[in-house]
Amino acid sequence: MNKIEISTEFIKLDAFLKWSGIASLGSEAKIYIQEGLIKVNGDICLQRGKKLKVGDIVEFENEKYEIV
């Protein structure tokens, strides 16, 4: 599992996808989310603005990313 460190209380899902390197552009992150390719804590998430906190796990293409 990849561990991604954030320095704030939370990070929005679309920003997290760019921060972690999953998406290189915001528009790319938006497409991934809209197409249901992103899971947060095991559930498909369609909310670009979903607030992620320490301990949340994001999944994309069978890779897991834990927020620490």
From TrEMBL:
Keywords: RNA-binding. Pfam families: S4_2. InterPro entries: S4_RNA-bd_sf. It comes from the Bacteria. CDD domains: S4. GO terms for molecular function: RNA binding. Signal peptide: none annotated. This is RNA-binding protein.
